[in-house]
Amino acid sequence: xxxxxxxxxxxxxxxxxxxxxxxxxxxxxxxxxxxxxxxxxxxxxxxxxxxxxxxxxxxxxxxxxxxxxxxxxxxxxxxxxxxxxxxxxxxxxxxxxxxxxxxxxxxxxxxxxxxxxxxxxxxxxxxxxxxxxxxxxxxxxxxxxxxxxxxxxxxxxxxxxxxxxxxxxxxxxxxxxxxxxxxxxxxxxxxxxxxxxxxxxxxxxxxxxxxxxxxxxxxxxxxxxxxxxxxxxxxxxxxxxxxxxxxxxxxxxxxxxxxxxxxxxxxxxxxxxxxxxxxxxxxxxxxxxxxxxxxxxxxxxxxxxxxxxxxxxxxxxxxxxxxxxxxxxxxxxxxxxxxxxxxxxxxxxxxxxxxxxxxxxxxxxxxxx
Length: 369
Ligand SMILES: *Cc1c(COP(=O)(O)O)cnc(C)c1O
Fold this sequence. Notes:
Layout: H1 15-27, H2 34-47, E1 52-56, H3 59-69, E2 77-81, H4 87-94, E3 98-102, H5 113-119, E4 124-127, H6 139-149, E5 152-156, E6 164-165, E7 168-169, E8 176-180, E9 193-197, H7 199-209, H8 230-260, E10 273-274, E11 280-283, H9 289-303, H10 331-339, E12 340-343, H11 351-365
Parallel strand pairs: 2-3, 2-4, 4-5, 5-8
Antiparallel strand pairs: 1-9, 6-7, 6-10, 8-9, 11-12
Helix pairs in contact: 1-8, 2-8, 3-4, 3-7, 9-11
């Protein structure tokens, strides 16, 4: 008998989302309006300790507009990890600034503060840590580097809704933070992003998302159309209400995998960190990329267990971004890119699914054989 395929991610859309969208459609007003305003308020209250949140059309737009709103541009360097989705460095390049890649810490996969400090030049304007896989970056150490050199911090919190460090939520550590609302993230609005920032920067993000105007036809600067629609905000509000329960399920699923997996190195959590497990990422220690890819293929083909590799090619080696990294070597990043894969951890997993994942990993890695 062939078991059902366990997908690596699964957006959960229910009656609440359908009813919320239907209500917006019935209102006849579907562009940015009261649903977006309510979503921003609720997101800020629930996840940011009351900090201002501004909704935009995608996470990438959020990072881009956040950098522009803070005045980052040509001549500025922003230090970013290479081990992340390309949107991190893309947003810096789109703002006209230069992404400078630093290495990661081997345990959390987030920026290594010592590597960041070594990358600082007289042009460095900011550091942009990514809270990768839902684990918070080492913000106290990065803040020390930032303060020593007069730098700002921009957080890429695309994968980390609800994560925190020493009780402080991600999204509250720097000038601007971005959360993605893409369908595979911990919560979704279809497409969308949320920008967390203080009120003066928030004013400029609001201008930039709407052709530079807050009052109609009183355009104050040259802006984009990066608005969120009320249809998307309605989905996002329904998802936000469910997020705490889903996060608890992700954490419980991760605890099960931590306790039972053999044959792979499980993801550690730093003291004081709350990990929200956007991904549950393990290492096949010492493996080449090809050996890791073979394990991923066998999990899928022989055991119907989906998994993903985030990210097989570090950003500094992508055709699009390599020009910012000539001669650069990032050994911890390279090793992670060869060794990692992410097992399903999403809230739709059953206990039987979790047991199948453990059995499949043991079989494929020949753990204990
Ligand atoms: C998803 C993601 C983004 C981009 O978000 P979009 O909403 O897809 O534009 C940026 N950074 C990281 C780390 C991401 O995972």
